[in-house]
């Protein structure tokens, strides 16, 4: 009997590494040292005698990576992703706190919707706050300390295919070509992945790519934090477009080294906070009192900006022919509007798909259809959550799914109910943090509960 998408999602969220390594792969190669690539390498280390991670950046150097231009921006580690990291790297929480990450339990997180404070705080999962370099650096440390994982600092230039299967990769170091043979190749090259080009050049199908024109503009600033142990470590103020067409929202997190990291976002031609003067003025005038307190702190450094043009997904699962010995993960498959903070958690769920696929020791001479089917469930869930919200923006022109008007109205009712109703807020948080499938919100009980809560609130 086949499982529903919600059941698959629940099973993936329960995946744990095997108690003992069970290597049946001689060598696996991961293209890209992104979070998705690192988590794939961690999973592969349980099933391969050797894992090689190829990236243009030297992964042994500490600090921000040139290959992560968005690394200067505010990042969220959703509770769902945090739980996966703790399973993959036992003691991750302890190590992160020792390196300066800040605890973010439910009571320390505060959220405003269109200026209204959420008055209910579900007692759901904890998370951590910290900069992207800290979180990614800790993941990188844990992966690279594994004895069967090594790195090659190089630029991947091609895929080796013999017959019906991938057998390795080509790369270039300082103008000199190189080859790495592999029994399994993992594409984790991000949203600019060249795998589609390589497949097409080798005579294989190119996966269809779907795009949604988002035009998100970020601005991030770091401040000195006066309090060592602030009451609220994560504060977000989100605006609907109808209420605030110019500023989509702002947030600030406590991060390592006694700092606040604050972010402001807008869409299309709106780029709020591009200058320190505009950033500080908006924090003081357009957001709740907590933001004014941050704005009065010492400014550290310049405003860092970033633009996310579109969300995109490559539908590898629809290809009629696909090489054996090859799997794509992370943003190489789907990258979403980053304002929802799904990236790290989605990468962790892709790693759970890979773990589930490899555990029974599949025949790598056959295409990884089982993996692609599991991954589709994750991508569909994240894509539906982010794009359904993006479709409410006036500059986004579809495509609109069937029944969009009704589903959009229901979504607004549920979101509004999270302000005052703890049952709705708890279920909503489980879905947003990717611990539960979005289908769990589309039940009569949840919808009726939300409608009753909104009537009471009026």
Are there runs of 5+ residues with pLDDT below 50, and where? Answer: none
Structural class by helix and strand composition? alpha/beta
Largest sheet: 8 strands, mixed
- Helical content, roughly? 25-40%
Principal-axis shape equals globular
Q: Major sheet: order of its strands? A: 5-4-13-14-15-12-16-18
Instruction: Report the average pLDDT across residues.
Output: 93
Strand content of the residues, in percent?
Answer: 25-35%
Q: Which radius of gyration do the C-alpha atoms yield?
A: 22 Å
Number of DSSP-assigned strands = 18
Give the tags.
single chain, 458 residues, alpha/beta, eight-stranded mixed sheet, five-stranded parallel sheet, 33% helix
Please specify the SSE layout and strand pairing:
Elements lengths: L4 H9 L11 E7 L3 H10 L3 E8 L23 H10 L3 H7 L3 E3 L4 E5 L2 E2 L9 E3 L2 H13 L4 E5 L1 E8 L2 E9 L2 E6 L2 E4 L7 H7 L7 E16 L9 E5 L10 E7 L3 E9 L8 H10 L3 H7 L3 E16 L11 E3 L5 E2 L7 H16 L10 H22 L13 H14 L4 H11 L11 H14 L1
Helix pairs in contact: 2-5, 2-9, 3-9, 7-8, 9-10, 11-13
